[in-house]
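User: I've been trying to design a sequence by hand for this structure and keep getting stuck. Would you show me what you'd pick, starting by listing the structure so we're on the same page?

Assistant: Good idea, let's start from the same input. This is the structure you sent:
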């Protein structure tokens, strides 16, 4: 289908003129979707029509060639070439129809479906341990394994598509053969279902869609997505350096090798001394020791399992799934060789051989410059790289300047976007900035590929890294060799002398270490006055540059001196590092009042021809006008393009739900993290998603059975858990504010504080004068945070009495006596000597009703600052999920209509907990929500239709009648053996009958058919009703039940019974019955707490035993007032630690039965609610020579548990025993065995 359609699909297919509204594009989109076609790949300028208006030019893509997936499958190499405009206002279009591409020998690629076949494990074991080969290297084992797997695949039919055709043919013959047994037919159908699932897995891996989980079959979607991606990425020709087109895989590969070999060849760096003179050694001896610690097998395994299982493999053909699944076979040899590398600093160069995959940077690439070379590394090399990365990440924040935000834990891309936006806003509206300053945005050409290895090595030395660490890094960098992948086939082999591989986990971190040299040069220039950075307000930080990996933005005074010095820094840095600035893609944004003569001088000095700004920084608009919806229209277009793609027609209901939640909602998230989207745009996207859910495309109007507002309620309340974008936007912005509150030392926080709340609080800051849109957006997030944020008291010095700091729901300040000043700090209520609440001060300043609440707040003995906590999460940390829940629920009122299931939350909860096919869950949800096309439901929506049941013609067609009380349904339910006095009795409600089926499900063992049969019966009743209504096909009760039984058996045998062994294994693992003794030379302190929610009182106990199990000491005590059970548990641990120290123990294991607390301590996880307790624990642990914190199950913590319960019910507050008390004797003796 080709020609002049005189219409466009998306607003971004038009340049110039008025913006097209979304509604005006619906008709053409509907036509494209109904025909199931999409554009062919094209070359040239796709703006095929050009029209001249009085003051401007309008271009649009109205001439196009489209085809459906079947046509593309027959002619996979076809494309369109748009030629130059000559006389007509339309570009000529040449459609090149090609059936096949050039063939070549495809490399071995491990098929992850083989992991499901038990025989393959034996093949792998034999190949890995083949006694006929030399086992000196892992590479030889890998080659042998590859050969054995290939041989096995040739001897066995692993083509599931071919197997499906064979089985369908067998089933057809068996069905018509009277002599075929039922068991044979059942076995064939089981094999067919298995083949379908294997086919789905195959296409899922190839489609690179990681968001869609297996459940209902989505094979057609995966197949279509794969074919579309392959067609889009196919490389048929390339333009050579002389401008002549090159065709054929081998010729293209030759050109690729020439280009990338030149790119990866060193240019001999110069002036290293000048560039590196300002680098200071920042890596301490302690840091180096931590980096050089001995590598463990656990660390190697962790690194392997951190690699995506189905990510594209390296030249050896094995992805991470192979190594992960067969780790018990391959693990020991791999661990040995990885450890050898870290001992010797060298490995076989073939480990580091890499396939270069060429990814287009633009829609229609012409030359090799238009491709990004992504390195596909071998998994065994990635293990080493991942280990180095994990260690390096832990020290980067102290090594790299605060101006670099990429890849460093605790720093975020959004910080740079906010800072840049604030500066651009000041350049436009703030008089001083607008008159004297400018922003320079540079584009670095092939940034990773040009890094000089010598420069990298010198940077590592200057930073102070140990020689052995540098050797490890440089071995990984210098031993690389490349082959180029052209349409999936590797060609040639060449080596490099510079460059960092994109695709190597280590490369981004090495790159930011190199770019930190540029940062140090700029910082020094700012300190010496050679460059003057911009301040958006008095007292704020001077900002000269922002870096995010290879994205660079510079702020300085707009004059010749600053420009000349900046250019000098660029040149010195480029000569040393190999980096090259692409001046044609760089741009300058001048302050709005900078004189034109000054602009001309600066542009001439910097040799940058573009001014006015690049429009976007890190993917988001730099500046905003009044028409904000137009600025964000690209988000709507992106969501529209994703969910209206013709492949999505093949998705099941469960697949659609996952697409919406995992993809459609993810697309605007980045923008919503920084800016408040206009409500109109949010409503437009919400409507688009709703139309997609109920229909096939987002444009075509379908009957919406349930309102969008009801569908955004949680599943347990009867909705589907979809998100309202406006409220989601607020939760994301609140998350940004929360991060700033936790990092007041960050550059962004310091800048905002100086500009908007110099003497105040961010949460209560006002709008300010002429605020930026970014600040207005953050204040929108603050509105939500104020609902649930409180201060957690440490020393009380930074919290005022009038702030919300009481742990109530919602948080609030205490009720103060009339004479109390609310601006007094909370520390005035704390005794400075005892560090406890001062009873006299409390009585003088606080209303007596709030004093008991304050007494329950724990005060640490050490000096710990106050902090913010979020009251709607267990650990006190703000999450987007909890923020969204807060935003959604606070806007509800009693008048808000609720979904039908909301009146029966038990049904909604039980429904989604069923372990049944996803399509059945969605069917049950629609049925219970009255959202299926029954006559009764249609009549409720004023649709005129015959109201009677199509089968019995005597009763109205309601859900209860069709599924339970129709004679057809009654005869089926009787045959199932269920209690028909409940499910077929019209006196019981439809909801009661569902409750009965859920009860049957819970009471029936997982391996029994009757657990699942009722739900498949409902499904088949619905299918037989539809066959009768729409196809005039009468399916009798016996056949309906047989179909339901066959469905249930397939689900049971192919899903449930295959899951059961893994579930049983998980239940049985590592659970011991008795208390475990400590090692010789150690003692163990078990602790526990018994908490009463009604009054907050807690009993606590601890017991210390030696390596023989003998009791040394124990204690029990009663705390009056702890807010939560976890606070009581922490108090018990602190008391146990303090007692152990006082008793003289220095090598000790502390063991409790609260897994969350143990993990928080051992992994140093954030828990703001317990922050004061945890910091006290960390201070005390440093006093011990050797200390461990272990988790144990309650059964193995029985002694401490008994002590805690005894304390909770006793009268005395504290008891310390130096021998075993009588009530504990039998239990201690029992555990000592």
């Amino acid at each position: 289908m080709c020609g002049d359609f005189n219409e466009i699909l998306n607003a971004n297919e038009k340049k110039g003129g008025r913006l097209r509204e979304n509604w005006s594009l619906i008709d053409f989109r509907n036509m494209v979707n109904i025909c199931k076609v999409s554009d062919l790949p094209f070359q040239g300028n796709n703006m095929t029509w050009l029209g001249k208006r009085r003051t401007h030019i309008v271009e649009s893509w109205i001439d196009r060639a489209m085809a459906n997936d079947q046509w593309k499958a027959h002619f996979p190499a076809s494309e369109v070439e748009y030629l130059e405009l000559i006389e007509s206002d339309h570009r000529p279009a040449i459609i090149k129809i090609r059936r096949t591409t050039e063939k070549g020998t495809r490399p071995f690629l491990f098929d992850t479906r083989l992991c499901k076949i038990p025989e393959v494990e034996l093949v792998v074991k034999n190949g890995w341990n083949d006694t006929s080969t030399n086992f000196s290297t892992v590479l030889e084992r890998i080659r042998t394994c590859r050969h054995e797997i290939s041989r096995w695949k040739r001897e066995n039919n692993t083509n599931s598509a071919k197997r499906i055709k064979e089985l369908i043919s067998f089933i057809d013959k068996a069905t018509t053969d009277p002599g075929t047994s039922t068991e044979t037919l059942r076995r064939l159908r089981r094999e067919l279902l298995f083949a379908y699932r294997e086919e789905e897995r195959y296409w899922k891996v190839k489609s690179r869609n990681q968001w869609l989980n297996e459940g209902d079959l989505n094979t057609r979607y995966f197949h279509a997505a794969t074919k579309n991606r392959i067609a889009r990425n196919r490389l048929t020709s390339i333009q050579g350096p002389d401008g002549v087109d090159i065709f054929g895989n081998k010729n293209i590969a030759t050109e690729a090798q020439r280009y990338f070999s030149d790119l990866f060849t060193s240019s001999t760096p110069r002036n290293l001394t000048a560039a590196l003179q300002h680098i200071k050694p920042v890596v301490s001896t302690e840091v180096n020791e931590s980096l050089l610690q001995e590598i463990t097998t656990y660390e190697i395994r962790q690194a392997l399992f951190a690699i995506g299982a189905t990510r594209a493999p390296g030249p050896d053909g094995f992805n991470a799934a192979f190594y992960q699944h067969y780790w018990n076979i391959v693990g020991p040899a791999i661990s040995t060789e990885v450890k050898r590398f870290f001992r010797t600093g060298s490995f076989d160069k073939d480990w580091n051989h890499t396939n270069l995959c060429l990814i287009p940077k633009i829609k229609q690439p012409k030359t090799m410059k238009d491709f990004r070379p992504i390195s596909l590394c071998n998994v065994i090399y990635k293990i080493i790289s991942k280990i180095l990365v994990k260690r390096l990440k832990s020290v980067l924040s102290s090594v790299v300047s605060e101006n670099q935000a990429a890849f460093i834990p605790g720093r975020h891309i959004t910080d740079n976007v906010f800072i840049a936006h604030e500066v651009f806003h000041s350049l436009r509206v703030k008089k001083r900035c607008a008159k004297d300053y400018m922003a320079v945005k540079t584009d670095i050409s092939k940034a990773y590929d040009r890094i000089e290895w010598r420069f990298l090595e010198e940077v590592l030395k200057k930073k102070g890294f140990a020689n052995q660490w540098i050797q490890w890094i440089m071995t990984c960098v210098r031993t690389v060799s490349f082959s180029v992948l052209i349409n999936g086939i590797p060609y040639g082999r060449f080596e490099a002398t510079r460059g960092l591989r994109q695709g190597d986990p280590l490369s981004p971190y090495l790159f930011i270490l190199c770019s930190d040299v540029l940062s140090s040069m700029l910082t020094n220039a700012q300190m010496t006055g050679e460059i003057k950075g911009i301040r958006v307000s008095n007292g704020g930080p001077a900002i000269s540059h922002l870096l995010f990996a290879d994205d660079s933005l510079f702020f300085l005074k707009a004059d010749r001196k600053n420009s000349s010095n900046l250019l000098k820094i660029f040149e010195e840095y480029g000569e040393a590092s190999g980096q090259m600035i692409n001046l044609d893609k760089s741009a300058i944004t001048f302050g709005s009042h900078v004189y034109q003569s000054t602009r001309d001088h600066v542009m001439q000095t910097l040799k940058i021809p573009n001014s006015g700004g690049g429009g976007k920084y890190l993917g988001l608009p730099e500046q905003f006008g009044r028409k904000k919806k137009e600025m964000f229209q690209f988000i709507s277009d992106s969501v529209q393009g994703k969910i209206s793609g013709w492949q999505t027609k093949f998705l099941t209901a469960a697949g659609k739900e996952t697409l919406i939640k995992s993809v459609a909602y993810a697309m605007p998230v980045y923008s919503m993290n920084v800016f408040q989207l206009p409500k109109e745009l949010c409503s437009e996207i919400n409507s688009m998603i709703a139309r997609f859910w109920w229909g096939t495309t987002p444009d075509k109007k379908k009957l919406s059975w349930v309102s969008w507002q009801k569908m955004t309620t949680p599943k347990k309340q009867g909705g589907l858990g979809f998100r309202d974008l406006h409220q989601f936007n607020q939760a994301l912005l609140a998350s940004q504010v929360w991060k700033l509150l936790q990092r007041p030392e960050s550059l962004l926080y310091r800048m905002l504080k100086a500009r908007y709340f110099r003497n105040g609080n961010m949460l209560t800051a006002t709008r300010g004068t002429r605020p930026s849109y970014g600040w207005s957006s953050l204040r929108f997030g603050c509105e939500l945070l104020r609902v649930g944020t409180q201060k957690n008291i440490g020393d009380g010095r930074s919290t005022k009495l009038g702030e919300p700091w009481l742990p109530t729901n919602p948080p609030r300040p205490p009720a103060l006596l009339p004479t109390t000043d609310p601006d007094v700090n909370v520390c005035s209520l704390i005794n400075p000597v005892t560090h406890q609440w001062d009873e006299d001060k409390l009585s003088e300043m606080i209303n007596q009703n709030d004093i008991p609440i304050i007494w329950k707040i724990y005060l640490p003995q050490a000096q710990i600052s106050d902090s913010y906590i979020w009251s709607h999460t267990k650990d006190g940390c703000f999450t987007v999920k909890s923020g969204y829940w807060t935003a959604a629920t606070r806007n509800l009122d009693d008048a808000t209509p609720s979904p039908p299931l909301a009146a029966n939350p038990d049904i909604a909860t039980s429904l989604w907990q069923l372990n049944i096919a996803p399509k059945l869950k969605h069917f049950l949800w629609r049925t219970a929500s009255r959202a299926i096309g029954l006559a009764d439901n249609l009549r409720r929506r004023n649709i005129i239709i015959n109201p009677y049941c199509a089968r019995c013609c005597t009763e109205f067609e309601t859900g209860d009648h069709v599924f339970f009380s129709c004679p057809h349904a009654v005869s089926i339910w009787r045959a199932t053996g269920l209690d028909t006095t409940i499910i077929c009795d019209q006196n019981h409600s439809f909801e009661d009958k569902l409750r009965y089926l859920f009860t049957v499900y819970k009471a029936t063992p997982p391996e029994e058919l009757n657990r699942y049969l009722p739900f498949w019966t409902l499904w088949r009743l619905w299918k037989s009703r539809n066959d009768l209504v729409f196809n005039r096909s009468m399916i009798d009760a016996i056949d309906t039940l047989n179909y339901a039984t066959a469905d249930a058996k397939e689900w049971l045998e192919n899903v449930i019974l295959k899951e059961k062994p893994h579930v049983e294994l998980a239940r049985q693992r590592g659970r011991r019955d008795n208390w475990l003794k400590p090692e010789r030379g150690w003692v163990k302190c078990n602790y526990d707490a018994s908490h009463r929610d009604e009054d907050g009182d807690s009993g606590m106990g601890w017991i210390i035993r030696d390596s023989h199990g003998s009791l040394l000491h124990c204690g029990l005590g009663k705390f009056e007032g702890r807010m939560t059970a976890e606070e009581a548990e922490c108090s018990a641990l602190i008391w146990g630690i303090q007692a152990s120290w006082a008793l003289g123990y220095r090598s000790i294991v502390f063991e409790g039965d609260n897994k969350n607390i143990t993990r928080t301590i051992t992994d140093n996880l954030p828990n703001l609610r317990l922050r004061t307790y945890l910091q006290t624990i960390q201070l005390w642990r440093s006093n011990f020579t050797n200390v461990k914190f272990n988790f144990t199950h309650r059964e193995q913590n029985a002694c401490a548990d008994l002590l805690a319960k005894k304390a909770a019910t006793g009268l005395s507050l504290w008891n310390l025993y130096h021998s075993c008390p009588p009530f504990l004797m039998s239990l201690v003796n029992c555990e000592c065995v």
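That's my pick for every position. To get oriented when you compare it with your attempt: The chain is about 45% helix and 10% strand. The longest strand covers residues 437-445.
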